[in-house]
Input
Amino acid sequence: MHQKLNIAIVLVYCIFLAACGAKGDHTGYEYAPQMYHSVPYEGLSQVTDEGAGQLISNREDGKGEFFNSNPHNPNRMNMRQPPEHTVSRNPYGLLPNNIHKDSFALAERILKNPLPETAEILDEGLVLYNRFCTHCHGSTGAGDGLVGQVYLGVTPYNSAAVKDKGEGHLYHVITHGKGRMLSHASQLQPMERWKIVRYVQTLQKQ
Output
């Protein structure tokens, strides 16, 4: 009798588990779905539209996402006040890496080098340039590096096509690449790219 009861309990348990599974158009049941499908928040902004954000809500009015924002933050952010010298968004609401890879004109117009043109920055830019750029662009930026001599077509920095390009353009090319030049974003941190930009600007004037 007890054996039959145990078998019946196991069968009921298996049926219960099978009923919770996803199948066809049924996505199944989840315990605490908000933990599986949490709503991501942008740290530097907050939801202010009461009609927005009804992805997941336990509230009867469906305004869970709105009320999960922090309306009392004086900086209108979901995060605390950023530390001093934190890089802010530019007026276009874009971060350097969010600009489309082909938008060179936009990058040139809005991206500004946060590093001063000092001897120390130029020296550090030279070290990075020799490490990552010389093999194609050459030591003077003439496009005559060892690789540039084999794969011809590396434009000199002081040529008419490049000498007037601004710092935003140079940074964007280093970040996303252009033509046969591939992206160096995985090799260089943003501040390292800006240091190289400072040094390349000296080669544009030669």
Summary: Residues 101 and 176 are 6 Å apart (CA to CA).
